[in-house]
Design brief:
Length: 297
């Protein structure tokens, strides 16, 4: 008899739990209630696109983040590669009139450059990138310039330093010295471009001298990696039989974080040559291989 009563109550609790769970799911899926005329409330319809529905409902999860970055990458790729005809076709496909003005009186034909006095006015972003790449590339070869990666350093920051500090015995720590030491370390810089070596304890690192990295396509996965080093660092005076030259050129891989959370890697096969580019840079060239992209988000 007692077991029957227990089972009866357990069944009731189970049904209530299931009902609450389903209600919770329905509430989470529900759209935002919008106030209309008077006191009437009208619930919006769920969007057919799952990503847009999550965006409208304010949901955030790992899948949303991945899909969101994929959309950004596709949009960025389209803008960097599309001709004015492709832009017009895309606008028409999505119900936009390519000749209409926006609320500021600007037309959609700006092609990425609103200012009529801009040097690239009337050109697409793809056309502007071709011009910019042509202006910045070295002229000693005819390889296609695929990418230019900026290597402007950023401060490490005290928060990042604190996250790596190990806990030690309180009795033997001089806190005043420890805090000063942390502050000094937090003022150090980190660089977007990172190189790996067999001996990573060396002090002379090419990524700390480089202003930008140019990647040129040689064929299939083979690339040429060009480190643009400002002449102010005096690398032109380094002889190729010196230890300093060896430290700077003996690298195994190069890694760069893209704007969309991807870790881009290149394997370095050998040092090729170095040239002076204009009156501002010495360029150190390496042969390399494109590595498989690693998703990091």
């Amino acid at each position: 008899m007692l077991n029957s009563i227990k089972n009866f109550f357990y069944a009731i609790i189970l049904r209530i739990s299931i009902a609450l769970y389903e209600t919770e799911n329905e509430l989470l899926k529900a759209g935002i209630l919008e106030t209309k005329q008077g006191s009437r409330l009208q619930q919006r319809m769920r969007h057919r696109n799952n990503l847009l529905e999550k965006f409208l409902a304010g949901h955030r999860d790992e899948r949303y983040t991945q899909d969101y970055y994929e959309v950004l990458k596709k949009a960025d790729k389209f803008m960097k590669e599309a001709s004015d005809h492709k832009i017009a076709v895309a606008a028409d496909r999505h119900g936009m009139n390519y000749a209409l003005k926006d609320k500021w009186g600007r037309r959609y034909e700006h092609l990425g450059f609103y200012d009529e006095k801009h040097k690239y006015a009337g050109k697409t972003i793809a056309e502007a990138l071709v011009i910019e790449y042509e202006e910045r590339k070295t002229k000693d070869d005819h390889y296609e310039l695929l990418n230019i990666y900026d290597n402007s350093p950023v401060e490490v920051g005290l928060a990042n330093i604190m996250s790596t500090v190990e806990k030690v015995d309180e009795e033997i720590v001089d806190y005043k010295y420890k805090v000063n030491d942390l502050i000094q370390h937090s003022k150090k810089f980190t660089f977007p471009i990172r190189c790996t070596r067999e001996d990573d304890t060396i002090l002379n690192k090419i990524e700390q001298l480089t202003e930008s990295l140019h990647v040129k396509k040689i064929g299939f996965e083979y690339v040429q990696l060009e480190f643009f080093i400002p002449l102010k660092f005096g690398t032109v005076n380094i002889t190729e039989d010196s230890k300093l030259f060896k430290d700077l050129t003996e690298i195994n891989q190069i890694f760069i974080n893209s704007d969309y959370g991807d870790l881009i890697g290149y394997g370095v096969t050998n040092f090729k040559k170095r040239i002076v580019h204009g009156d501002a840079y010495e360029v150190w060239k390496f042969d390399g291989l494109k590595m498989e992209t690693i998703k990091t988000y």
